[in-house]
């Protein structure tokens, strides 16, 4: 029998006041996994109220103790890694090795942020005046709305929830509607780890119906969003108007450059992994390959040969290279780019089809696709497709390759394959991307460095690593004057204060 999934508000598992549900299904075969409660704005109000009520208690709970709860959550995630990965593959399609990686990333982030319970460093700096102390400390922002997508059902929520918690914020968590089960699992883990009621509240339901209400709610102080550029831009607009803090992590149009001195076989491995992992549904997926003319023919031949051999299938089956995309809508969106590409003059060198018979026809599968004869300004080279489609663009030298890399509105991840250290350093310096790889693909970020992009990929914030701490806290500068007299900064001389040497 299918499971039933509920909201988590003020420490209790509850149905929405609407009494309605939505289905959680396996994108590889349409099987029903669970029904989930479909929330209304009244449920959002309750969740925000619970988070506000819990805020002071949590803010004042010692940070090292908050960190210990996270540490226990990390241990539970380790114990459940395989179980969670299997459920994730069923819920959103990516293959088991990748869902294990998704859970592992969540574990890494949880342990990293657990350690922040005993760090959260501020500065103590000298004052210009005698007998005066100057220091800074972090202060939680308040109640955080964490709005997450479906492509990393566990990892991305931990990127938001763990730093927010360790810094003393409370949370309303609104996951994507395609993955309610993994969201419930994460909340269960934190509950079992000892998180007090109301600190983390979960609201399941449609972003289109609840989103604006949550984002503009007076009880919400910070919105942390990962998803499409359209939704991110909308949230930024309506929340920015209210001077709320907003952190947006949006799209990418990531490119891998292959120079003529590169190890081509290594580049082929990196391209296949970066373009087709998670069926291309990663914000860091490589959807452009910029090939130096001297290597283009060999590279394309090898890529096409390997792509044609990749096997579509259920992500739980051994031997599957690529799972389904997440939904019918996503499949239609991805596939719509094939005629767009052809009309603009591109050639489908491999793939390009939606399987229409056998077991694959029951799921949302799209063949891994290589497009050639692509020019940098074509739509397939500019727009985020978010599926297993990679476009090959040719360039004559490293300068032109860098211009192509930088020619989209996005700036998330990019990479160069070269054995020439000068070209590598030129690329590292000039690429307009938040994440740069040398001799590796565009995916595979680790949680201890900042994650995020330049230009329209975001609004200037970074997730992960130390940078995440800045999103979920405000800086407070504190001056303590123990001179017992009025001392005026920038005005009183040391002679006047009687402390000149
Ligand atoms: P969305 O940006 O619409 O969804 C991301 C999250 O935002 C989900 O939790 C969604 O809820 C929620 N949401 C939707 N509308 C609102 C709103 N008005 N206010 C607040 N929250 C809202 O992405 P989609 O899932 O629709 O995917 C569409 C495209 O977005 C993809 O094809 C891809 O190009 C891009 N995308 C990029 C991602 C990335 O990592 N860069 C991740 C996901 C998508 P709900 O699920 O209920 O709609």
Report the principal-axis shape: globular
Low-confidence stretches: none
CATH C-level of the largest domain: Alpha Beta
Q: Care to count the β-strands?
A: 22
Ions and ligands: NADPH dihydro-nicotinamide-adenine-dinucleotide phosphate
Radius of gyration: 25 Å
Mean pLDDT, to the nearest integer, reads 97
Question: Tally the helices: what do you get?
Answer: 16
Descriptive report:
The structure is a single chain. This protein is an alpha/beta fold. The protein folds into two domains: 3-250 and 458-477, Aldehyde Dehydrogenase, Chain A, domain 1 (3-Layer(aba) Sandwich), CATH 3.40.605.10; 254-438, Aldehyde Dehydrogenase, Chain A, domain 2 (3-Layer(aba) Sandwich), CATH 3.40.309.10. Helices cover 39% and strands 21% of the residues. The protein has helices spanning 41-60, 63-79, 81-92, 96-116, 155-166, 180-192, 207-216, 229-241, 264-276, 293-308, 328-343, 379-382, 398-405, 421-430, 467-471, 494-497; strands at residues 3-5, 7-9, 12-14, 21-25, 32-37, 124-125, 132-140, 143-147, 170-174, 200-202, 222-226, 245-249, 254-258, 286-292, 347-350, 369-372, 389-395, 410-411, 413-417, 435-438, 454-455, 473-481. The chain has a seven-stranded mixed β-sheet, with helices on both faces. A five-stranded parallel β-sheet has the order 10-9-8-11-12, with helices on both faces. Helix 2 (63-79) packs antiparallel against helix 4 (96-116) and helix 9 (264-276) crosses helix 10. The mean pLDDT is 97. It binds NADPH dihydro-nicotinamide-adenine-dinucleotide phosphate. NADPH dihydro-nicotinamide-adenine-dinucleotide phosphate binds next to helix 7, helix 8 and helix 11.
């Amino acid at each position: 029998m299918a499971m039933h999934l509920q909201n988590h508000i003020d420490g209790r598992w509850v149905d929405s006041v609407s009494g309605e549900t939505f289905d959680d299904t396996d994108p590889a075969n349409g099987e029903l996994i669970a029904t989930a409660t479909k929330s209304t704005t009244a449920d959002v109000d309750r969740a925000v109220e619970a988070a506000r009520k819990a805020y002071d208690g949590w803010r004042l709970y010692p940070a090292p103790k908050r960190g210990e709860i996270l540490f226990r959550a990390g241990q539970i995630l380790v114990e459940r890694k395989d179980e969670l990965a299997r459920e994730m593959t069923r819920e959103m399609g990516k293959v088991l090795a990748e869902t294990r990686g998704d859970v592992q990333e969540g574990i890494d982030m949880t342990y990293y942020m657990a350690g922040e319970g005993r760090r959260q460093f501020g500065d103590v700096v000298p004052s210009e005046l005698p007998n005066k102390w100057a220091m800074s400390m972090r202060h939680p922002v308040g109640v955080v709305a964490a709005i997450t997508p479906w492509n990393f059902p566990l990892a991305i929520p931990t990127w938001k929830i763990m730093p927010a918690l360790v810094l003393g914020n409370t949370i309303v968590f609104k996951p994507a509607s395609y993955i309610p089960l993994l969201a419930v699992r994460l909340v269960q883990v934190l509950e079992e780890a000892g998180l007090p009621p109301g600190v983390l509240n979960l609201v399941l339901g449609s972003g289109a119906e609840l989103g604006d209400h949550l984002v503009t709610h007076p009880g919400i102080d910070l919105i942390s969003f990962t998803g499409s550029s359209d939704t991110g831009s909308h949230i930024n607009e309506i929340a920015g108007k209210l001077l709320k803090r907003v952190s947006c992590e949006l799209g990418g149009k990531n490119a891998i450059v292959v120079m003529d001195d590169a190890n081509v076989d290594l580049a082929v491995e990196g391209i296949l992994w970066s373009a087709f992992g998670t069926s291309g549904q990663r914000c860091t997926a490589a959807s452009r390959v910029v090939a130096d003319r001297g290597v283009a023919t060999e590279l394309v031949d090898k890529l096409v040969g390997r792509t044609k051999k990749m096997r579509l299938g259920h992500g739980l089956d051994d031997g599957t290279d690529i799972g389904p995309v997440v939904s019918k809508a996503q499949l239609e969106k991805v596939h719509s780019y094939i005629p767009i590409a052809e009309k603009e003059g591109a050639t489908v060198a491999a793939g390009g089809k939606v399987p229409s018979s056998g077991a694959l026809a029951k799921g949302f599968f799209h063949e891994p696709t290589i497009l050639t004869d692509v020019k940098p300004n074509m739509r397939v080279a500019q727009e985020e497709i978010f599926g297993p489609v990679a476009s090959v663009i040719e360039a004559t030298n490293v300068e032109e390759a860098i211009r192509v890399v930088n020619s989209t509105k996005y700036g998330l991840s990019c990479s160069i394959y070269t054995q020439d250290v000068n070209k590598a350093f030129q690329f590292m310096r000039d690429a307009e991307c938040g994440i740069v790889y040398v001799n590796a693909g565009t995916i595979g970020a680790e949680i201890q460095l900042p994650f995020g992009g330049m230009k329209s990929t975001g609004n200037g914030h970074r997730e992960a690593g130390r940078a995440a701490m800045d999103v979920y806290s405000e800086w407070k500068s504190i001056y303590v004057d123990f001179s017992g007299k009025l001392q005026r900064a920038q005005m009183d001389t040391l002679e006047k204060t009687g402390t000149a040497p």
